[in-house]
Amino acid sequence: MAMAYNKKLAERVRAVFELEPNCTEQKMFGGLCFMVGRNMAVGIAGDDLMVRPGPINFEAALSLPHARPMDFTRRPMKGFVYVESEGFATDTALAAWIERGAAYARSIPAK
């Protein structure tokens, strides 16, 4: 069963990715994911933002307000965090989270 994702948040994320030439969208993890170079950068599950800061920046991302380990399978996924809506209420905060995920996606080989 597919989880609904916040369509308004999807529009906000699309607006940030407007200038990213290698950005594509894919339904994944029961939500919507935004890929850079076919690597997941961020996604939307319900009202949460899924961000892939990668293993090196994982602890730093977790230390930020409203972030928690992504435990989609009931086990935390290394290198992924969920961010609650309060954590990206402003466009500036949303863009900062998206850049964390996009920077990691750009740093690994495209699939």
Q: Which labels suit this protein?
A:
111 residues; alpha+beta; Yope Regulator, Chain: A; six-stranded antiparallel β-sheet; 3 helices; 33% helix; globular
Polypeptide structure, described:
The protein has a single domain, classed as 2-Layer Sandwich (Yope Regulator, Chain: A), CATH 3.30.1460. It has 3 helices and 6 strands; from the N terminus they run αββββαββα. The protein has helices at 7-17, 54-62, 91-107; strands at residues 23-28, 31-36, 39-45, 48-51, 67-69, 81-83. The mean pLDDT is 92.
What layout of secondary structure does this protein have?
Layout lengths: L6 H11 L5 E6 L2 E6 L2 E7 L2 E4 L2 H9 L4 E3 L11 E3 L7 H17 L4
Antiparallel strand pairs: 1-2, 2-3, 3-4, 4-6, 5-6
Task: Please sum up the structure shown.
By secondary structure, the chain is an alpha+beta fold. The protein contains three helices and six strands.
On the 0 to 100 scale, the average pLDDT is 92
What is the name of the CATH class? Answer: Alpha Beta
**How many distinct beta strands?**
6
* CA-atom Rg in angstroms: 13 Å
* Amount of helix: 25-40%
The CATH topology is what?
Yope Regulator, Chain: A
Derived from helix and strand composition plus strand pairing, the structural class reads alpha+beta
The proportion of residues in beta strands is 25-35%
N to C succession of SSEs: HEEEEHEEH
Please, how many helices? Answer: 3
Distance between the termini: 27 Å
- CATH hierarchy: architecture: 2-Layer Sandwich
Question: What count of structural domains?
Answer: 1
What coarse outline follows from CA principal-axis ratios? globular
